[in-house]
């Protein structure tokens, strides 16, 4: 009888979670921000400004850190080459091998031994989350975090040295949910909105990234009074297959996958292996197709994007801001990253830092740099603008929507050999994200 009661309680818990009446509380407390002492500075001389970061150049996320760091270096090298620049940027970067403990060690080395003025492009969810209190305590400016964990969100903290640029995951999750219930992506022809009582499945990784995105999804569902239609399940690497089976058994109308690149890819493969036909929406961190296994999935895959490089009137259909980036990558010997989303992110990080730096009038200190960053909106290359004024630390709050488009393997002529006609040249299968909706805020998505 006792075993029967336990089984009943377990099944009841699953039912409650499925209908949204027992949703997990995934919010985090906002960190304290100590005041920055006037005149405090390090890493600055008459001829040099030291900045640095730690990034995954090897390990699971090496494909993120290498192009990201290469783009930052390219921007700073171009800046240093200008004749009017007296204080050159000395960019120091270390490899943390995708290990947060090494990342923490590297950050302390940058601050305490290298004496950097700022971190530019702080990489890795685990490293960023673990080092934020340390950076705040030491008043070190941080411009751009290559993650969106909710610890980066600060509502009203003037003088805060933390400047996250890319969207905070809570915002990311809110926008993903808004897209799910508002976009005409569904039905036999992919041109219908979901019904008002449609079930929205949420698969989130049980880590800072997944929980942060899922927190935003849940918040937005509550805002729309549709939380009872959520089906929320967490997964780990060794539970992906079983959790996907459980999710599919609930028959959701759309599935939002909340997590970073590797687990997202595992979830996609598991869904495809199980024969899922349910459309998937994911975070902006997963819209670099190079991190996704190339195959023809049995369902549509959509992802948010805060960088928009498409301009129908631009050269070859791309915006001039993209060509500025691509030309710099080519000129710096990094042509292989001219279309890489992580390199674009590094390019943005370095340029936003330089925008703040060039606003400083008089002596450069932590305080004057922070004031310069807060002086007004800053243009974000390929991504609109961001406003840190009045202590806003919200990250970018508007995003586009892209769809993963598959191109099958083909056999025929080699386009690289114009003077020879071939019939057996194999072009391998590929895929890419293609924009289906432009950059929009939540209000714009809802038509408000």
From TrEMBL:
SUPFAM superfamilies: Periplasmic binding protein-like I. Pfam families: Peripla_BP_6 (PF13458). InterPro entries: Leu-bd, Peripla_BP_I. Residues 1-18 form the signal peptide. Keywords: Receptor, Signal. Residues 48-401 form the Leucine-binding protein domain. Belongs to the leucine-binding protein family. This is Putative branched-chain amino acid ABC transporter, extracellular ligand-binding receptor. The lineage of its organism: Bacteria, Bacillati, Mycoplasmatota, Mollicutes, Acholeplasmatales.
């Amino acid at each position: 009888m006792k075993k029967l009661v336990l089984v009943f309680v377990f099944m009841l818990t699953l039912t409650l979670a499925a209908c949204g009446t027992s949703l997990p509380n995934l919010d985090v407390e906002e960190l304290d921000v100590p005041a920055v002492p006037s005149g405090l500075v390090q890493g600055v001389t008459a001829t040099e400004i030291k900045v640095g970061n730690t990034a995954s150049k090897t390990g699971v996320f090496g494909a993120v850190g290498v192009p990201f760091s290469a783009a930052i270096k390219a921007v700073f090298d171009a800046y240093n080459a200008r004749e009017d620049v007296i204080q050159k940027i000395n960019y120091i970067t270390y490899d943390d091998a995708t290990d947060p403990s090494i990342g923490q060690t590297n950050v302390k080395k940058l601050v305490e031994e290298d004496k950097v003025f700022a971190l530019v492009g702080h990489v890795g969810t685990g490293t960023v989350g673990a080092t934020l209190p340390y950076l705040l305590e030491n008043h070190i400016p941080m411009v751009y975090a290559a993650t969106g964990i909710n610890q980066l969100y600060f509502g009203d903290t003037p003088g805060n040295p933390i400047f996250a640029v890319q969207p905070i995951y809570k915002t990311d999750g809110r926008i993903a949910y808004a897209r799910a219930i508002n976009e005409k992506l569904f039905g036999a022809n992919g041109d219908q909105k979901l019904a008002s009582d449609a079930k929205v499945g949420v698969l989130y990784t049980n880590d800072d990234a997944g929980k942060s995105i899922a927190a935003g999804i849940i918040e937005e569902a509550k805002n729309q009074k549709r939380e009872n239609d959520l089906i929320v399940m967490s997964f780990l690497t060794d539970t992906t297959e079983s959790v996907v089976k459980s999710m599919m058994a609930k028959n959701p109308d759309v599935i939002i996958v909340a997590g970073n690149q590797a687990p997202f890819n595992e979830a996609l493969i598991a869904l495809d292996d199980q024969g899922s036909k349910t459309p998937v929406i994911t975070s902006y961190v997963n819209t670099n197709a190079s991190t996704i296994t190339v195959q023809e999935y049995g369902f549509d895959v959509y992802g948010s994007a805060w960088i928009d490089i498409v301009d129908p009137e631009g050269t070859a259909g791309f915006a001039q801001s993209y060509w500025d980036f691509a030309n710099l990558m080519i000129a710096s010997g990094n042509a292989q990253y001219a279309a890489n989303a992580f390199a674009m992110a590094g390019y943005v990080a370095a340029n936003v830092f330089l925008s703040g730096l060039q606003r400083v009038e008089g002596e450069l200190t932590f305080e004057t740099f922070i004031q310069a960053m807060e002086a007004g909106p800053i243009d974000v290359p390929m991504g609109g603008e961001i406003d840190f004024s009045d202590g806003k630390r919200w990250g970018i709050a508007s995003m586009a929507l892209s769809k993963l488009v598959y191109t099958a393997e083909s056999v025929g002529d080699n386009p690289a050999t114009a003077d020879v006609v071939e019939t057996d040249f194999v072009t391998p299968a590929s895929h890419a994200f293609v924009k289906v909706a432009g950059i929009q805020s939540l209000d714009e998505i809802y038509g408000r």
